[in-house]
Design brief:
Helix content is about 65%, strand content about 0%. The chain starts with 8 loop residues before the first helix and ends in a 5-residue tail after the last helix. The chain is flat. Strands 1-2 form a two-stranded antiparallel ribbon. By secondary structure, it is mainly alpha-helical. It has 23 helices and four strands.
Amino acid sequence: MCQYSFRIRRLIRPFFLLQNSSMMKKTFDCIRRTLPEVFSVLMLLFLHLYFFSLFGMLLFKDVDKPGSVKPSPSDEGVSYFYALNDSVLSLLVLLTTANNPDVMMPAYDKHRLSALFFILFVFIGTFCCLNMLTAVIFNQFRGYLLNSMGSSLRRRRLAVLAAFWVLSRDAIRLNEVAEDREEADWDCDGDRGDPPIYYGVPTNLARTVVVKATMPSHSRAAILRELDTASSHLTSRRFSEILSLLDSGRSVRDPPPIRWATRPLLLLPQRVFAHSRYIYFSLLVSLLNVICMSVLIVVRQDEAFGLNNSALLRINALFTVWYVIELPLRIASLGPRKFFYTNANTYDCIVTLGLFAMGCWYVIAFVAQPHLQQTSQSASLYFLTRFLNMLILLRLLRLIPHVSSMSLVASSMLDLFSNMRPFAGILIIVYYIFAVLGVALFEGVVQPPANVSSIVYECGSFEQLNYWGNNFNEFSSALVVLWDVMVVNNWGVFLKAFSRFSGPWSQLYFVAWWLVSVIVGVNLFVALILENFVCRWDRWSQQRRGLGGAGEPSEFGQSIHEVFRGSLVEPDEHELRVELASHAYLKVPLPSRQYGASAGGDL
């Protein structure tokens, strides 16, 4: 059996994940290039911390307890400025406001003006330096990521143009078939008096290549739709425009039409339930249900969940009957394809079926069995009532797509989740490395005593707060500890506890994790949120100005290239042609002077 408690190979495993994703490598490279720029702000922050730490020792060393003897941990007034390491750690935790105002109170009780020291420290460190650090990280990371995206875009455009010349390696005279000769690409031999030779890719050949190529299904469908409307041959500009759909996200599908009833008796209710404004009436009913449920839970909390004939159950049953009746009527009015076209209606159907199942359970278990009606407290009834209320609350979430500002925020969050996969992969790698190191360093350090309840601990300490489950005895609990420290709420408790359990050097581990996760990771996450939301907001504002009203944001996600598309500059086609002309195997003709002057625009 292997007796090794720590293996270096465990730390190397995440790098295999990093090598399998090009976007993760780009993101990691941008982070690596951002760190030197951040170092100057960090040095200013540490200088601020060190300066105030020394100042605090000179001002407040004897505030808690006169004399040179350090108070014991069980004393009520713990000295925060006894030694330099205590002073630095106390103010480092105060920098995250995790121990505010605890660190200030011993000195504040003695001298009211001592509060100015802590107010000045928090104002300069938290509100100025940390926010400046966020701005620097956002600016530098965005700049490096834009450069990386620009290089990626140039390679994409160069590859598309190279594909055009490979597919059109046999010169095709488009003099007779090209509808717009000014957009056609021709050899420089045309400048010497010879008839110009136009190059083009047959549309059927392009369609065959797209069908056989590996690409997302929605991109293939969009490209094939464009090819169906194209002419018999494609110029390079038209070829590039069509293949640029590879960069786009999922496109909006055309909604299926409604099949209207022919009988007047059925046409009237169909027009009511299929009307575009009916959804607002349905949302109003759901909102009324939630309001009634909230009032009854507050006013009659004791009997709301315990009695099988409570007012809360009766009102919820009434609304559930309406939901169950409304669902098939809307499906019949819109048609199944039209109804399930939107995700909101699919979500509504799932929640309504859950409410129907809960209602059937209630009827079978409590109404059909009279002997259960005498039971005032039932675990099954308690669970059913709570689950029914949760489903009713979830049904109200249908309101989000119908409020433009809320829909904008929700769609930005969905786009963020899809575009942050490279960043999430790097975050998982960092979590894994620190968790493995934490298990190797602190496994078995935290052990709860046999009889915890009989021991009196200091108020606010690791032991008194019953944090025994936050340990590094296993990998899963180590991940939870790292998350708790990253949130920085009460992370000073972990610093003091592990300093007592395993020695003062353990604080370096937690400070390093705070620097990596909070200072770098959280700020990068804020940068991604800002960039994604600003992009969505700008497009939504342009849409509103273009429509002259409240435009609805798109339901479908955007790719990472679309997020930064507004800040990227399209490469010049003339430069791409010159670069391809130097290739040894493509044999691309040099662009002519006329081409460079007139047809060297965007792809």
